[in-house]
């Protein structure tokens, strides 16, 4: 819940981490947990530099850059990425992380989608099924924002990229230059 206590906990965590960048969900998601997380992080964005909020944790001298994960929601406004990242070399790690969310990926998600009967039983088969099911998201962003990928990596490299993640700059944190934004997401 986006309570004051939770907001203060998030402020303290960002300060303790001394974050340069904070990536969260946008506060207009279908799932209340996602929506409230986005709201709490957004509410904490400016407050991490305010000294009299949570004075037990030293304020940050420089506000982090706050970014949103990609989504397909259209209201109140569609997701508009500011940076594209080639994630080809880390996809095995990403697939491992997604695969580790067993209940979401292989139980309730497929149940809600009416495809629970299609989930394979073995671990290796499940992972391959998951990759087929989820690859489209990473590929969709590459196809939809190929100009942003080419701007960042050059046209030749962009043509070779398979998987892309995109992020939108939150208006409440520090507003970096394009160059600084790219440095925060190293190639």
Low-confidence segments, given as residue ranges, are none
C-alpha geometry: globular
The CATH class of the largest domain:
Alpha Beta
Distance between the termini: 36 Å
Give the name of the CATH superfamily of the largest domain.
LmbE-like
Proportion of strand residues:
5-15%
Task: Strand order, main sheet: write it out.
Answer: 1-2-4-3
Description:
Strands 1-2-4-3 form a four-stranded mixed sheet, with helices on both faces. Helix 3 (91-99) packs across helix 5 (123-144). Helix 2 (32-47) links the parallel strand 1 and strand 2. The radius of gyration is 18 Å and the shape is globular. The chain is built from eight helices and four strands. The protein folds into two domains: 1-87 and 164-187, Rossmann fold (3-Layer(aba) Sandwich), CATH 3.40.50; 89-162, no CATH class. The chain has helices spanning 4-17, 32-47, 91-99, 102-112, 123-144, 146-153, 155-160, 178-184; strands at residues 21-24, 65-69, 83-86, 164-169. The model has no long low-confidence stretch (mean pLDDT 92).
Put the structure in a nutshell.
With about 190 residues, the chain is α+β, with helices and mostly antiparallel strands. The chain is about 50% helix and about 10% strand.
Features:
alpha+beta; Rossmann fold; 187 residues; 2 domains; globular; 50% helix; four-stranded mixed sheet; single chain; 8 helices
Question: What is this structure's SSE topology?
Answer:
Blueprint: H1 4-17, E1 21-24, H2 32-47, E2 65-69, E3 83-86, H3 91-99, H4 102-112, H5 123-144, H6 146-153, H7 155-160, E4 164-169, H8 178-184
Parallel strand pairs: 1-2
Antiparallel strand pairs: 2-4, 3-4
